[in-house]
Amino acid sequence: MRKEVKIGPVIIGDNQKIRLIAELGVNHLGNFERAIKMVEQAHSNGADLLKFQTYKSEKRYDTKTNPKAKEFIKNLKNWEFDRTKEEEIWSYAKSLKAIVFTSPFDTESLEFAEKMGSAAYKIAAFEINNHNLIKAIASTKKPIVISRGMCTLKEMDTVVNIFEKYNSPYVILHTISSYPTLITDSNLKMIHTLRERYNYPIGHSDHTRGVKVPPLAVAAGACVIEKHFTINPKLRESDNPFSITPDELKEIRFIVDQTKEILGSGNIEKIKTEE
Description:
single chain; alpha/beta; eight-stranded parallel β-sheet; 10 helices
């Protein structure tokens, strides 16, 4: 039987309710009031888990090897809260009884997230070969969610071996690292491939616009769906243009629950309606 992973009180697994992760990221664009409202709206419209990004902008990119690093760092610096404001956002989320975790991009940010009581950790697809950071995250012994966008199965195996060494429970999200992703590029059969290869929960981090792909991912075997979340898709910066709104989150909650019911148990047996 495929293993389950528990993040706080939320259990992720094939025999559980489909779980929804709202990726808040930096869609707040550094506006504190907007960040607070995003937390409230994501929690009240059906997200099981809220995910932040925790970082120090100057540590997130290597200016020596990445020609666009300075531009990226400048944007991220504009959207970065100081630690005091970050603490306020975490505290507000917890006051709502929301289950919060984060993607830390450096060890200093990991230490801060530990202080804030992150329920789990997310490893972004772009960090798949950052083994020092991954080992530091795994050493916390908390559940890990990892996106496999762009990586090879060999690279994924290497990271899974680290998880196994540290006895870290994990969830793998199929991901296409294109922002936004065209629906026709979703490659949802990869979910089957991942399910055949790994015995932990498999989900999907969806970067397409709208609500069409999540139920298809569930039908393909995903037991958790991550979507980027916004309260104002008209904002043109960061991930706002392809992120879902509170109403779309509510719609996804309904359609993935319906999809789960339609799929049934898979058991070969006569069911009540056939009587």
